[in-house]
Amino acid sequence: FNIRPITAKDNAKIKELIESVLIEFGATGGGFASSDPELKAMSEFYNQENKFYFVIENSDGDVVGGAGIAPLKGGSGQTCELQKMYFLPEIRGHGLGFKIIRLCLDKAKQQGFQFCYLETLDHMTAAQSLYRKVGFKKVPEPMGETGHFGCNSFFLLDFNQYS
Length: 163
Fold this sequence. Notes:
Elements: E1 2-5, H1 11-24, H2 42-46, E2 52-57, E3 63-71, E4 79-87, H3 96-110, E5 115-120, H4 125-134, E6 137-139, E7 153-158
Parallel strand pairs: 4-5
Antiparallel strand pairs: 1-2, 2-3, 3-4, 5-7, 6-7
Helix pairs in contact: 3-4
């Protein structure tokens, strides 16, 4: 597997991948990432200052996962958000989630963010286990203005406690 920054040629595939995983987990309709306008042009959205997105490709060059960081909309400039971290079923459980989340968090910390926020669903237990493993702690309320009112689990990582 290869992890690399997103390019324009990845836009259609990562959009399709994200939508298929959201359907798999019952996260369809308004209030989920599938409604985000950046889904139509991910590389253009994430190739800006303080934003980035990595894709995972298999040995055939197919995009099979991804994750990114952007400043938390409606948050302080000190908080970023882990965004659109999704993997096709065939690559789950191989340590790639840990690898890409560490890559994202390390880069976010280097860019000067103090906190990282994320939203997910209660029944995405494997993802929540990974988030806790890298230092995220569950928080009771949503933060910022993500528009993801369909999410019901919220996590925050303090970079002062991240190593």
